[in-house]
Write a structure and sequence with these properties.
With 162 residues, the protein is of the alpha+beta class. Helices cover 64% and strands 16% of the residues. The N and C termini lie far apart (109 Å).
């Protein structure tokens, strides 16, 4: 009986040592994994900071270039005419440039246009002036008329380009 108890105790000690050893190995694996993930996180954060710094530098350069272009103006001062097809016929516009900037856009002729469509389409004029370009979206509900105004303005603006 005594031998049975000694063997049982030996088996219990061996089992306890194995369980303890596995626990230590699991803890080391988790610590290693945490260290790897922390290093990866730090690398990712550094890359993000570098990208943000590069984007900020790029934006600063773009802003400086666009401010310089705005200060100089991108168009030759004067009044320029343009024509294009609208919903009901030809639309003629007059673009005024002062200080190198588009300051006014007026419709000089739109004889065949439906007045309801034309009045809706005129909402494109402030967009063109604000954008300093005819590269703007057309007006929903007056697509053909606003496209005619935009294309006529583009023709006039091309005449004004430096």
């Amino acid at each position: 009986m005594r031998q049975l108890i000694v063997r049982f105790l030996n088996v219990a000690v061996i089992a306890a040592v194995l369980i303890g050893y596995n626990t230590v190995l699991d803890k080391r694996d988790k610590e290693d994994q945490i260290a790897r993930l922390s290093a990866k996180l730090e690398t990712t954060q550094l890359q993000k900071e570098n990208l943000q710094a590069a984007a900020a530098a790029s934006n600063t350069a773009d802003t400086a270039a666009s401010e310089a272009a705005e200060a100089e103006g991108q168009y030759v001062d004067g009044t320029y005419d343009g024509e294009a097809d609208g919903f009901g016929g030809t639309i003629a516009v007059e673009v005024t440039v002062e200080g190198g900037q588009i300051t006014d856009l007026a419709i000089t002729s739109a004889d065949g246009e439906d007045s309801a469509y034309l009045s809706n389409a005129e909402a494109i004029i402030p967009k063109i002036i604000e954008a300093q370009s005819a590269d703007v979206d057309t007006i929903s509900g007056a697509t053909f008329s606003s496209t005619g105004i935009r294309n006529a303005a583009q023709e006039a603006i091309e005449k004004a380009e430096k």
